[in-house]
Amino acid sequence: MHLNDTKGYKLFRYFNIFVMIMIVVITFVPFINIIAQSFSSERFITAGEVFLIPKGFNVETYKAVLSNDRFWIHYRNTIIYTAVGVAISMFLTTMLAYVLSKPKTRIKGKGFFVGYAVFTMFFAGGIIPTYIVYNNTLNITNTMWSVVFPLALSIYNMLIMKAFFENLPTALEEAAAIDGMSSYGIFMKIVLPLSKPILATMTLFYAVAYWNSWFQAFMFLNDWTLFPVTLFLRNLISGATATGEAAAAEAGSTQIASNVRSVSMFLTVLPIILVYPFVQKYFVSGVMLGSVKE
Amino acid sequence: MDIDSQVPGGETGRIANNPETGIVSKQGAMTTSEYEEKLRQTRVSKWESVRKSLKKDWQLYTFLILPIIYLFVFQYLPMIGNAIAFRRFVPGGSMLGEEFVGLRYFEMYMNDRTFWRVFTNTLAIGGLTLLFNFPIPIIFALLLNEVKNVKFKRFVQTASYLPYFISMVIIAGMIMEMLSANGIVNQMITWFGGDPTIFLQRAEWFRTIYVGSEIWQKTGWGAILYLAALTNIDPNLYEAAAIDGAGRLKQTWHVTIPGIMPTIITLLILNIGSFMNVGFEKVFLLYNPLTYETGDVISTYLYRIGLGSANFSYATAIGLTQAVIGFILVMGANLLSRKVTNRSLW
User: In this prediction, does ipTM exceed 0.85?
Assistant: First the structure.
């Protein structure tokens, strides 16, 4: 094939490799800039001299942020919300996906249940009624539950999982049923062990969603001790927060410096970047699985 | 669908399409009383089969209980709560409001000049996003597909969807750092001899920043499905085209593009459907009163008047309108696609 490539096509391929390299560079530059700022002195950042390499290299800002108790309270909150949220999400998603993966001859009213779930993807209650339900009807604002429950069941994830269950061979389940195993037993002892790849994918999907979420906390929480680190960060970058000022004061500045913001951003994004190279293939296979169904 | 297959008399009264005469005829015609008797029996037997299924598989049905309750409480209750768009809501009162006021809140926003401004902004930002963010992942996938070195290809792909997994707060933070007076963008402008601009305080820049960062964040991820579709194209098609004398460009046009067309259509439907759902989080994090003129969208406006100024009913009326328009757009795009291309999401 390569032998009869035209001159124009060869030229195109060099150009194409250049374009791809540029895309990678553009993708990474903002991250590298933040990392460079986080190790730089504020003086050089303000002067606009920090680009991709730290200037006035120091780790003082890291020390200041890491020794700030408030930062750790927020970080701990994020870890708790992510852990609890993922547990609830996996429970709800797996159960619903499993039932809906069964043929309609076995689950009466399957069409209705699928419609009941899928409708929520295309029509939502809106911010204000949601707030009223959380605040007046359920009375769970200013608790951890108001941060966890909004993300607890993603119908998109459920459909991906449903597609996975539908593709599982049914022979084992049928054999177990003939042997008199209950549906609970079949689900726990046969289906779940066969589904490790999709369970891993979904756990990661949900974990990233909980780790990154901030708006639910912004809307429903008043007590700063409950804030996740993303909300702390949001208040830091919008420049109006007692927490941010405390961090800034420890960094030896009266206003929140760029390097404090950069350090906080880097520490928040770090877990995602660290696990990303190992988990990205799961994300991709998960999305593919969902699309195969169409 | 479940219901279709269990239409009364479904077996005997099936409509047959005679391909030779083109005449649609009903086979096994019944008298009305026979039909009603059949209908009754079907209902009884359907109920009977539900009872049997419940008895045999009750454990399986228990799996449904919690998800159904969850969806009802956290999705359907807020939908019902939209009733306050038509009823006056008193803070601390019933979630369904106190008294019926008809379309008062809807008339209110029709006469609200700010509403029309945010409506226009929503259309503009949504339209620009669709215009750039829909085709760019396709182009990226096509270019990446031409990269022959598998390792390099995988590296570019992996790198390109990293931004998709980053919290919007971090994205907004990075945008602010880069566009600040001493950020890297202004460093480059100064280096080329220009004057620094505080981009985030200039209304004329807001949409560019929004769409630009959207491209940066979502191009790689948006290309995944296209790349999958590209690997599924039969290589024999390319060989056949080459034998017929088609060059690279022609092969792309006649083999590659048709090969990924189903994916393009599906994603286009989804994109049109979510056209009005301009990313609330990003606008909310990046805008400020100086950029309201071009950046304020329906969702951010209703958030301010609803939770900021406690005009719950008014904000709900606006939100409900937006949700209904969004729903109609998805349904419309889906219907259109089914009519025109025979492909649809459902």
Answer: yes
Task: Provide, as residue numbers in chain B, all residues whose Cβ is less than 8 Å from the Cβ of A102.
Answer: 60
Mutate to test the interface with A, among B61, B95, B149, B170 (most CBs of A within 10 A): B170
**CB-based contact (8 Å) between A25 and chain B?**
no
> Of B55, B85, B115, which residue constitutes the final position of a domain?
B85
Q: Is residue B232 part of a domain?
A: yes
Residue A28, chain B, CB below 8 Å: the answer is yes
Q: Do A133 and B81 touch (CB under 8 A)?
A: yes
Of A27, A129, A153, the CB nearest to B78: A129
CB interface of B with A, residues 231-270, below 8 Å: 247-248, 262-263, 266
Contact between A125 and B77 using a beta-carbon 8 Å cutoff: yes
Tokens representing residue A83 in the block? 């852990």
Cβ under 8 Å to A: B residues 85-124: 89, 92, 95
Q: What is the pLDDT of residues A77-122, one digit of tens each?
A: 999 999 999 999 999 999 999 999 999 888 888 999 999 999 998 8
The domain spanning residue B174 has which CATH number?
A: 1.10.3720.10
CA A17 to CA B147: how far, in whole Å?
7
A82 touches chain B (CB under 8 A): no
Show residues of chain B in contact with A269, CB under 8 Å: 166-167, 170
Structural domain containing residue B193: 104-341
Residues B79 and B137 in one domain: no
The whole-angstrom distance between B225's CA and the closest CA on chain A is 7
Whole-angstrom Cα distance, residue B64 to residue A164?
Answer: 18
Residue A269 and residue A290: Cα distance in Å, rounded? 27
Hey, how many other C-beta atoms are within 10 angstroms of the C-beta on A184?
12
Quick check: B185 pLDDT over 60?
yes
Any domain includes B90: no
CB of B299 closer than 8 Å to CB of B322: yes
> Would the CA dihedral through B196, B201, B203, B205 be positive or negative?
positive
Helices (H), chain A: 7-38, 42-46, 60-66, 69-100, 110-122, 127-132, 145-148, 155-167, 171-178, 183-186, 192-194, 196-212, 215-220, 229-237, 242-250, 258-292
A261: contact with B, CB 8 A cutoff? yes
Report pLDDT digits (tens) over B241-295.
888 888 888 888 889 999 898 888 888 887 887 788 788 899 999 999 899 999 9
Please give the domain boundaries of chain A with CATH numbers for all domains. Answer: 7-58 (no CATH), 62-292 (1.10.3720.10)
B91 occurs within a structural domain: no
Considering the entire predicted model, what is its pTM? 0.86
Residue B183: pLDDT band by 50, 70, 90 thresholds? Answer: confident
Count of the separate structural domains present in chain B = 2
Greatest mean pLDDT range, A211-215, B273-277, B340-344: A211-215
Q: Are B6 and B42 in contact (CB under 8 A)?
A: yes
* Residue B95 covered by a domain: no
Beta strand B99-100 with B87-88: parallel, antiparallel or unpaired?
antiparallel
Count of A-B CB contacts under 8 Å: 272
State whether residue B71 sits within 8 Å of chain A by CB: yes
Collapsing DSSP states into helix, strand and coil, what is residue B15? strand
Q: Quick one: average pLDDT of B172-196?
A: 90
* B136 part of contact set with chain A, CB < 8 Å: no
- Rounded Cα gap, residues B125 and A37, in angstroms: 31
Q: Closest by alpha carbon to A127, among B299, B241, B63, B326?
A: B299
